[in-house]
Design goal:
Helix 8 (about 210-220) links the parallel strand 8 (about 200-205) and strand 9 (about 225). The longest helix has 20 residues, at about 1-20. The chain has helices at about 1-20, 40-45, 65-75, 85-90, 115-120, 140-155, 190-195, 210-220, 230-240, 250-260, 265-280, 285-300; strands spanning about 25-30, 50-55, 80, 100, 130-135, 160-165, 180, 200-205, 225, 240-245, 305-309. The relative contact order is 0.13. The strands form two sheets. The protein has a six-stranded parallel sheet with strand order 7-6-5-8-9-10, sandwiched between helices. A five-stranded parallel sheet has the order 4-3-2-1-11, with helices on both faces. The chain folds into two domains: about 5-105 and about 280-309, Glycogen Phosphorylase B (Rossmann fold, 3-Layer(aba) Sandwich); about 115-280, Rossmann fold, CATH 3.40.50. It has twelve helices and eleven strands. Helix 1 packs across helix 2 (about 40-45), helix 5 packs across helix 7 and helix 8 crosses helix 11. By secondary structure, it is of the alpha/beta class. Its EC number is 2.4.-.-.
Length: about 300
């Protein structure tokens, strides 16, 4: 099956890929082996002696690491990974360490969020706000987070949960209406206002390839709480921008309570995250990282002077 899929893709896409590759110095493929177009692109790059790299955004043991995917990565001149955990996983699958490059994702270029507008519109006043952004599923930690918020309110720590994202696994643990603001699949402008207004961003998920939304929260100087996803724990712990948990109700509840009880520490965590965004996760820095790798692999001392496809 792997052979037939790879061979069919190379045959069907060879003409288009050959023409496209002739106009560039580097082929950079964002995708996996099962996207199939990576194979004819790689073949055209080899025939024309061009550099070929890819960015698969693997979710280890969930997506992007099937045998056909690994076949593609092993033939690439470079594979950009989003965490050391992802890189280690691909090495264990047979991808050479020499082609792996850790490079995170860029945060958006501007941050138009307005905290006052959001709090006034939703009559939040000065209430403590916990923000969740993501698919509302157990895997994203949504059910555990709702239970944690319920327990905090029951124990006398008043907090309001603001949720943004599409419904996936209802029913959800119940919360009193006055502390449960569900905005559904809101537009980006609403998300940015919510990020600006929240006190803590919490996404206690069990699986992430990186966790760009933590970086978005850091851009607003917010402390974050992550779950058991190894890539997210690596990100949060590396930059000391929040608290990593195992995703259980007890740990998420404790993390929220600790951050809210220590405003100075919360500010320190948020500032550490913001510093990380400025140093490593701007679009300019991510572009620089890619071009550093491409120039080194091509063997040039000056910037690439043609196109990257």
């Amino acid at each position: 099956m792997r052979f037939l899929s790879r061979t069919a893709a190379q045959w069907q896409g060879s003409a288009w890929c050959g023409n496209a590759v002739s106009k560039c110095d580097v082929v950079h493929f964002v995708g996996t082996g099962w996207d199939l177009v990576g194979f004819p692109l790689l073949q055209a790059a080899r025939e024309q002696k061009k550099l070929a790299t890819c960015w698969p955004a693997v979710h280890p043991r969930q997506w992007g690491d099937a045998p056909l995917d690994i076949d593609l990565y092993r033939k690439m001149d470079g594979v950009f990974v989003q965490s050391d955990y992802e890189g280690k996983h691909l090495r264990e699958k047979g991808v050479s360490a020499s082609v792996l490059v850790r490079c995170g994702c860029a945060a958006p270029d501007n941050y138009p969020g307005d905290a006052d507008r959001f709090r006034k519109e939703h009559e939040l006043g000065d209430r403590k706000v916990i923000l969740f952004v993501g698919r509302k599923s157990n895997a994203k930690g949504y059910h555990a987070l709702r239970n944690a918020v319920a327990e905090l309110n029951h124990a006398g720590t008043p907090v309001t949960l603001v949720s943004i994202g599409r419904d996936l696994e209802p029913p959800y643990p119940s919360l009193p209406k006055e502390v449960d603001l569900d905005l559904g699949a809101a537009e980006d402008a609403v998300k940015h206002d919510a990020l600006a207004a929240c006190d803590v961003f919490a996404l206690p998920s069990e699986a992430e390839s990186f966790g760009i939304v933590y970086v978005e929260a850091w851009a607003y100087g917010k402390p974050v709480i992550c779950g058991a996803a190894p890539a997210s724990q690596e990100l949060v712990n590396r930059h000391r921008g929040g608290i990593s948990t195992d995703g259980s109700v007890g740990e998420v509840k404790k993390a929220i309570a600790n951050i809210l009880a220590t405003p100075a520490e919360a500010e320190t965590l948020g500032r550490s995250g913001l510093n990380a965004v400025c140093a490593e996760y701007t679009a300019e820095r991510i572009f620089e990282r890619h071009f550093e790798v491409w120039n080194r692999r091509v063997g040039e001392q000056t910037p690439l002077n043609r196109a990257v496809i």
